[in-house]
Amino acid sequence: MRRIFIIDDCEDDCEALARTLKAQGVDQIRCFHELPDLAALEMDEHGLVILDLILGNHTDGLKVLEQMSALGLTKTPIFLVSGVMSNLLQVAESYGRARGLTIVGSVEKPVCPSEIARILPLR
Predict the structure, then answer these.
(1) Which residues of 73-96 are buried (b: 16+ CB within 10 A; e: fewer)?
(2) What is the DSSP string of 13-57?
(3) Of 12, 14, 16, 75, whose CB is crowded by the most CB atoms within 10 A?
């Protein structure tokens, strides 16, 4: 099974998403409640990053996308989530793609199991 990285400042949301992924058969999940050292993570095209766009006071998802692009993580699939308006998600998708990133989709929170089932084949 491939690794899935969840970056979400809301611990409850992150853990709920991890439980949903585990119920769908995913066994390698890492949750981060603040921005991890992206360079130290072993991200590649076989993994998946689930990224919340609003990360509290630390940073925001757009900055994470910038960092991923600067690190050359262009083949790592990224799925965006947010509790904000869907038009912001669309802007973030375009922003990431313009930086050469592999944005595989987005959804508003709360993320339901059917949305997880939809993105799992993309790993």
Answers:
(1) beebbbbbbbeeeeebbeebbebb
(2) HHHHHHHHHHHTT--EEEEESS---GGGS---TTSEEEEESEETT
(3) 14
Quick check: pTM over 0.85? yes
6 pLDDT above the threshold of 80: yes
**Is the model more confident about 112 or about 7?**
7
SS3 (DSSP) at 76: coil
Structural domains of the chain ordered from first start: 3-122 (3.40.50.2300)
Taken as a whole, the chain contains a residue count of 123
pLDDT tens per residue, range 10-37: 899 999 999 989 988 888 999 988 778 8
The rounded mean pLDDT for the chain is: 87
Residue 64, both tokens:
């994470």
Q: How far apart are CA 60 and CA 87, in angstroms?
A: 16
